[in-house]
Hints:
Blueprint: H1 2-11, H2 17-20, E1 27-28, H3 34-44, E2 48-52, E3 58-63, H4 64-72, H5 82-85, E4 92-93, H6 99-109, E5 113-117, E6 123-128, H7 129-134, H8 138-141, E7 157-159, H9 164-174, E8 178-183, E9 186-192, H10 193-202, E10 221-222, H11 228-238, E11 242-247, E12 250-256, H12 257-302, E13 306-311, E14 316-319, H13 321-327, H14 331-334, H15 340-343, H16 350-361, E15 366-373, E16 379-390, E17 396-405, H17 407-427, H18 432-446, E18 450-457, E19 463-468, H19 474-479, E20 482-484, H20 491-498, E21 502-504, H21 517-523, E22 527-534, E23 540-548, H22 556-601, E24 607-611, E25 617-620, H23 622-628, H24 632-635, H25 648-660, E26 662-671, E27 677-689, E28 692-701, H26 703-721, E29 725-729, E30 735-738, H27 740-746, H28 750-753, H29 768-781, E31 783-791, E32 797-808, E33 814-823, H30 825-839, H31 849-866, E34 869-877, H32 880-887, H33 889-904, E35 912-917, E36 920-928, H34 931-946, E37 949-951, E38 955-957, E39 961-968, H35 975-991, E40 997-999, H36 1006-1023, E41 1027-1036, E42 1042-1052, E43 1058-1059, H37 1061-1071, ...
Parallel strand pairs: 1-2, 4-5, 7-8, 10-11, 39-40, 42-44, 44-45, 45-46, 46-47, 47-48, 48-49
Antiparallel strand pairs: 2-3, 5-6, 8-9, 11-12, 13-14, 13-17, 15-16, 16-17, 18-19, 18-23, 19-20, 21-22, 22-23, 24-25, 24-28, 26-27, 27-28, 29-30, 29-33, 31-32, 32-33, 34-36, 34-39, 35-36, 37-38, 41-42, 41-49, 42-43
Helix pairs in contact: 3-10, 3-45, 4-9, 4-10, 17-18, 17-22, 18-22, 32-33, 36-37, 38-40, 40-42
Amino acid sequence: xxxxxxxxRDSMKKIKLSEILTPDVIxxxxxxxxxxxxxxxxxxxxxxxxxxxxxxxxxxxxxxxDALRVLAGQxxxxxxxxxxxxxIPPLCASPDMDYRDAFRLLQEHGSRHLIxxxxxxxxxxxxxxxxxxxHLGSEELTAFKTVASVMARNVATIDEGETVATAAQQMHRLxxxxxVVTRDAVPVGILTERDAVRLELDISExxxxxxxxxxxxxxxxxxxxxxLEHAIQHFASNKIRNLVVTDxxxxxxxxxxxxxxxxxxxxxxxxxxxxxxxxxxKMLQLNQQCLLNKLHSTALEASANAILITDTEGIxxxxxxxxxxxxxxxxxxxxxxRPKDLIKSGLQSREFYxxxxxxxxxxxxxxxxxxxxxxxxxxxxEELTITPVRTENDKMTHFIAVMQxxxxxxxxxxxQAASLDVLDKIIANQPLPDMMLAIIHHLENLFPIIRxxxxxxxxxxxxxxxxxxxxxxxxxxSAIERLQANSDASICEMAAFSGETxxxxxxxxxxxxxxxxxxxxxxxxxACTATPIKDGQDNVLGIFTVYFVHPHFPGQTxxxxxxxxxxxxxxxxxxDKTETQRLxxxxxxxxxETRYRTLVESAPFPVVISSLADxxxxxxxxxxxxxxxxxxxxxxxxxxxxxxxxPEERDRFVSAVLEKGLVTDxxxxxxxxxxxxxxxxxSGRVMDFDGQAALTxxxxxxxxxxxxEDRLREAxxxxxxxxxxxxxxxxxxxxxxxxxxxxxxxGYTEEELIGKNPAILHSGHKDQxxxxxxxxxxxxxxxxxxxxxxxxxxxxxxxxxxTISTIYNEQQEPVRYVGVFADISELKRQQAQLDFMAHHDAxxxxxxxxxxxxxxxxxxxxxxxHGQNLAVLFIDLDRFKIVNDSFGHPVGDELxxxxxxxxxxxLREGDMLARLGGDEFILLxxxxxxxxxxxxxxxxxxxxxxxxxxxxxQHEVFIGGSIGISLFxxxxxxxxxxxxxxxAAMYFAKENGRNQFSFYTSxxxxxARHKLEMENDLxxxxxxxxxxxxxxxKIDLHTGKICGVxxxxxxxxxDGTLMSPAEFIPLAEKTGVILTIGNLxxxxxxxxxxxxxxxxxxxxxxxxxxxxxxxxxGNLDKLVAESLQxxxxxxxxxxxxxxxxxxxxxxxxxxETMQKLKNIGVKLSLDDFxxxxxxxxxxxxxxxxxxxIDQSFVRGMIADPGDAEIASVIINLAHRLKLSVIAEGxxxxxxxxxxxxxxxxxxxxYLFSKALSAPEFTELLRSGxxxxx
Length: 1269
């Protein structure tokens, strides 16, 4: 819609005449002979010639209308000059005039040419009706209009026996641009203003020459339902200005370019007025869309995630602020560059990126993690999602990459792994140095630039003693092996004294580090951080110190991680102390254990005793050892909180015990042996254990109960949320539970169903045997599934899909039945509808092709067994398209429905009528005694279709029908044969006048079969190399020597006969095989050039004919370049011959393609020049080297002076355009003499040599033969 608005906006801009004028105008002096003026117009196929003075100022104009006037007056040409017949003064305008004002000026003066002059009245160019047609926006106005809407219905006609003078006088009197020539009231040709130019030259007595002998024919016609868009294309492709409109061979009207321009202008004004009204609404919508786009853009810019938008080559088009923050690059620095050139770390393999690109180029989104590099060189881990962006046409245009920095998360994950590893070592009771070594290794693996050490504080002496420093230089480790904790010393001592983290960002500049600068510099350290190691009561146990090789201030994330490592160190030191204390307490504990052993050991459940002071374990019975998977000795002294999934739960449990004295049934999750998580009920009370306050805790595992409760809750939620009905019964069976869907489907309330037998829902459509089978399978297999009919409370019977399953207890005894069912009424209805739609036409409700083909097959089998006859009648409606296009598709659909009803009323018992699509029907008749019965039926149908149809209550229309009949078994034994042959017979009936029927005969398919066989033979010929090249020489008329050669394709049949290209090239063009043939010719020609060059014959080049399809295929320049490269030849040895009609099809695109070919170095020649219509402006722009005079002019120049005149004009025109000229088809000395007299450059024809095979032509080259020898 936006593109359409922009086109309308552009069309409303002021377009000046200077933008649309044609600057190349043929001008003459006023004294030039009229015969010469007419010759120029005929040769160049132009509509006017201007007379100018010496200052190039227009004096008059001679147009085709003036030529018609002269012809109508039967004036003799001899003695007439331009000044005698030209229109004066010519209609002129300035180049700044708006083209719409200019068009109104043309209308006011009834002219078709507007001369554009400058301020001094000097000629600048000319504007014709064609230029206005191109700028009226006709693509918006003609897309859905037909010729019938604009054609002139009153058409001037003249019988072919009338004279040319009579026709010209009638055209001049009525001011007609053309007149249609008829034979027995049937249009057979046309006479136009352009023909007047030709006829003035060709005939001397127009009053004696019948118009039928000189009219333009064959007549180009269109039907009334042809779109204006296609009509305009006819004007352009056929180089005509008038299109005759016929309907079934009868003259209906005429469309000419002049009237079409006037009509479109009126429509265009209305269109623009309507568009202006709509534009305001559309612009409001666009403004709203722009606001929404701005909001989207703002949201993307404000996103916390980094976002990049790239094209499909990976070039960055846009980046938001978050990306700049993440990468360190500004938006300006990244636009136009690839991400890999900026942030690629090199840590991912090439295969990683290959998979990524394969995924997104296939149109799928890619998601994953990778490590990238910031501008400062630091690495970060990101979670990346890349999503392709597609247009409405499914073309991939961009990629959107969304990045989230997950570096901290990855650090935390590694930290958690490190914590678990250290805790495992603590639980395994490993020595303190081993645990400290593990902590430091984990930290240094996380941050390779860090070196760490651990010092332990002696609370009695205040000394810091080094426990471990695996990565510190020995001399540095020795220097800090023992330190005194105070406030005026090293950072380790300061941290121990203050209990706070101490950070030194740069050792060399910090005043407190003066005593250690030399030592730190020698060790290679520039920064350090000391973190206190504390126990659970915030007492300092030691110092965790890390060193950095560069000045560094750790961020909050790193500080938190250091504190976490310090905490692990604290747990390790505390555990080591606890182990020491445990050994000391062992003896005392053994004494107190005796008092509790008998009671606790005999308990049928796990029991542990833990200290209230620090939570450490003091005792556990055998069942506790089994539950937690550790021996009593391993457990003593460990923190009880280690076994809690959520350690804070123990604190809450202890608080509850202290508050109440006794707590029972306290639910928590614990770690069992092997790390398995279980649910338990805790009971606890405070007691005195060997002189200290302790907590006695007993455990009862309830994991299975919790899981069962979860399953019950999930089952209840599923049961209530499902759209399927659920019913649970006991074994009686009596209903004990239903869900909401069950109530909605059956219509009963819960109270009405609970306690009832499910038989309350039975419909009565199934007997007792069915239900006996159901129960038998249910009792045997534990389940039953199938479709049944049940009854709602309202009495409505509905289909149901039911699944019944048996529920068993732990002893595998049945305890319940569960029925799950769905109402499939709608599904059944849809299935029935789909089945009907699959076999019937949606509009007429008649059987479709699939159904009738199945029926024909069945009837063939039946008829074959019983020796019966069948008839297939293929019915095609006549004039249906006219009705459809005139009144619209809804009326056309109504007509098809009425036709179906009318035909169905004529069916006999056993017949079938089907609609194939469009306006085609098939009737199968299976009760025939002979072919006459089919003929009677066909006549009845034609009579029925001949009656008028009343549509929409207001349109009475007459159509008709053409019917083709094929009979079984005479015309075929299969469905395909009978339908194909009936179709062929129908087309024969339609071609012979319509509204009749025809029986199939084998001759109908002969022509089609011949074309198909030739196409197959041609394709086979390509495979078997039956196509070969012959070569015909081109002669330089100045030297008489061979200067070039044209490659001509021949088809050598297996029997050795040669077929002319005229016999097979048209078929190749139609079927597309021409592309393969064209490529073959190009390759063979280049191969032959290479052969001649290798043989020393380097003075010729080969010309190859290029077909229209090959030229428009879009890759001709690549094919030519590849062939030249393949055989290592220079482009100057190859010439391409192009037909002028193919270039004028899309001239701008043609110029672009030709320029690409010229860039390769090949020569270009315009073939068959003069047979089509070339705009001189384009001819001047075409980058060609030569013109080739069509051989029809060369052959006709002796008998027809007009052909000689045309050939002379072409030669002069080519030389003025600095082009060389080649005459083809020169066969005698007279033609040769003419070409020499008129300075033609080259010739080609039988006079010198016919087309020869490659070996024969090679010998011709070696012989040195010249035109004179």
